[in-house]
Queue: 4 jobs
Job 1
Amino acid sequence: MTPLRICWLMLALIGAWLGRHLEAPDATVVIALATLAVWVLVETMVRRNWLALLTFPAMALGIGCALPLYLLLRSRRIV
């Protein structure tokens, strides 16, 4: 398994554990934001879509803002 796949698996397991044992929605939001951050960094390095890094400041507003913004920036044509 690649290191990236191990990262995804670990984030999924941590999210499952936090969601089951802590029953705190904030904990799962933190895991979702961490997962999005890893995804943005990996895809930015691969696609050289530097504008997608604007997702990081949007994370301060929450996953509901950051994820749609990232998908918007990711779906644009890269020149």
Job 2
Amino acid sequence: MSTTITRDLLKAKIVTDDEVSAAVDVFMTDLTTRLFRFKSGHSLDLANAVRVHQPAKAAVAHPDRNEKFRRGMVRTAILMGCIEAP
């Protein structure tokens, strides 16, 4: 059984770029946010996605990093995050 990541759903147009951006916004507002549900019903544990993606984890841990860089790292972590099916 293969693991589905957010990027797969984005490529398949099951989730939108706007939804991924919304997930980034939610996480950046509260770094402990766990559940993010996409309109398709798929969900992602945002905090875990960032925790397991070392560059994103490091970026959010260092407030001296600029906001654009931190958001980009979080977006990458979300795109690489393992999705739960509806």
Job 3
Amino acid sequence: MFLGSEGESGVVAGNLSDFLWVLADGVGPLESVLYGPPEPHSSAPRTELTALAEHHATTPRRPARDIVAEARAEFPAFTEDLDAPCR
């Protein structure tokens, strides 16, 4: 989950391992929230973050686009639920 300082919020990944793969694919959490699942051609894998994910992640490597889309499907009302008590 991403909670920004200006009220941005959204789902990035369903678990820490998948979040590591999102970062390894060169996608940041704010970009995932603001622009949605990245286009396949916009991937810019980061070597050092890929090594980190390969060492620590317990889920298989997948494109950031798939991970973000799956997480949003798993938690479709996250932003609405978070905003509800604030109104």
Job 4
Amino acid sequence: MPLNVSLVSADAEVWSGEASIVVAKTVLGEIGFMPGHEPVLAILAEGQVRITETSGTKIVANAQDGFLSMEGDDLTIVAGNAALIS
């Protein structure tokens, strides 16, 4: 079962879809998420969010000023600023 991921900025949805793994930078360091991960609520640090879709396609976004929340297989990343870079 994949992760259901939503990456949003203050003014728009940046990316949403299914992923096999997501790596994001928090104020305590990088953290990786896969299906079945324990629930997490963390403060987002400025840096890259790296998403690997279930197809294997890699998505990279810059994000800063926000938080991320993992509950079940739903990962939500809310950033003040976020934009895809590839």
